[in-house]
Specification:
With 367 residues, the protein is of the alpha+beta class. It has seven helices and 20 strands. The two termini are 43 Å apart. Residues 276-331 form the PDZ domain. It is found in: Periplasm.
Length: 367
């Protein structure tokens, strides 16, 4: 691959005018007066991430997902795992154990008992999940649960001794421009970290109905999926999930699921092994010229129909929270516990109406 270097711009140099030479003996010219030096101010942010890295990296794990080599139902390896020499070396190491590698990813330990958070796409369709810690110890992991709609998964390992673990941070406090550190297992190389800032909030990249990513400029590559993003206090504020790239490698467009979304999903998976989401049974659409979301269709005998919602209603609030887009309403309904009543405020023929809707359980076919 050729690398083209762009030449630096030529700096314009302005010379000071020369001193006039007076007839007769040379006279010493007075030195110009200089303003006192302005003290240098250190730029904001840490001078080193090393203390933070030492604190958090022991709880970041590498995850290898395999299928038995003798299995008649063997899957074809994804291109992200069979391409580069480094990736082939990782695959060959796993083959020595009689396994065929489906993929490699990352995760992090959430408590000392061995609960690990990762991405659903890292561990789905696995016959065997192997977790490696930074100290070289390897564990066989069991799948606790996967939520396909958010691409979040929980797995568990057993250890005779308590394991290092991480704590959650509040992603709602994260601002664009904040320093962050991402950790993971890029290309199966082993534990590594990258640093950058939060580039944007609330990104929808078309991966699912609940897209609400933090966009990061910290380099994230294949194999980083499932790894944590930290704030400067060493708290997990997001789960590394996706990149947008024309080449398959990092171009500074990384996307992580905020902790405010990850935490309740993880707790449900730990408790039940699955997610029960609320269901309304109505098709919603955005209104460009109005603040709210319009009901485009109402399913027959659905919670929406039984609650009195009608086609053409403009929903402005649910459970006291303002709803300005269809996405916000879909998320609010999904987050509501099934078999509970909520108040829905609508505009119908320019008149405000409050309806009581009994939230149903989202059918599995819609997951």
């Amino acid at each position: 691959m050729k690398t083209f270097l762009r030449s630096l711009p030529v700096l314009a140099v302005t010379c000071l005018p020369g001193a006039e030479v007076a007839a007769g003996p040379a006279r010493a010219q007075p030195l110009p007066a200089f303003a006192p030096a302005v003290p240098l101010v250190a730029p904001p942010g840490p001078t080193s991430f090393a203390p933070l890295v030492r604190k958090v990296v022991p709880a970041v794990v590498n995850i290898a997902v395999t299928r038995d080599s003798d299995s008649g139902n063997r899957k074809k390896l994804p291109s992200a795992v069979k391409g580069t020499p480094l990736e082939r070396r990782f695959r060959e190491r796993m083959r020595k154990h009689g396994d065929e590698v489906l993929g490699a990813g990352s995760g992090f330990i959430l408590d000392p008992s061995g609960i690990i958070v990762t991405n659903g796409h890292v561990v789905e369709d696995a016959d065997k999940i192997t977790v490696a810690l930074m100290d070289g110890k390897e564990y066989s992991a069991q799948l606790v649960g996967i939520d396909d709609l958010t691409d979040i998964a929980v797995i568990k390992i057993k250890s005779a001794t308590p394991l290092p673990y991480l704590e959650w941070g509040d992603s709602r406090l994260v601002q664009v421009g904040d320093w962050i550190v991402a950790a993971g297992n890029p290309f199966g190389l082993g534990s590594s970290v990258t640093a950058g800032i939060v580039s944007a909030r609330g990104r929808d990249i078309g991966t699912g109905p609940f897209d609400d990513f933090l966009q990061l400029d910290a380099p994230i590559n294949p194999g980083n999926s499932g790894g944590p993003t930290f704030n400067l206090a060493g708290q997990v504020i997001a789960l590394n999930t996706a990149i947008v790239s024309p080449t398959g490698g990092s171009v500074g467009l990384g996307f992580s699921i905020p902790s405010e979304i990850v935490i309740p999903v993880v707790e449900s998976l730990r408790r039940d092994g699955h997610i029960d989401r609320g269901w309304l049974g109505a098709t919603l659409e955005d209104i460009i010229t109005h603040n709210g979301t319009r009901v485009a269709e109402v399913d027959h005998n659905s919670p929406a129909a039984r609650g009195g919602l009608k086609k053409g209603d403009v929903i402005t609030a649910m459970a006291g929270e303002h709803m300005d887009t269809a996405r916000s309403m879909i998320r609010a309904v999904a987050a509501a516990r099934p078999n509970t009543d909520v108040q829905v405020t609508v505009q119908r023929q320019n008149q405000p109406i409050t309806l009581t809707v009994h939230i149903g359980r989202r059918p599995r076919s819609e997951d």
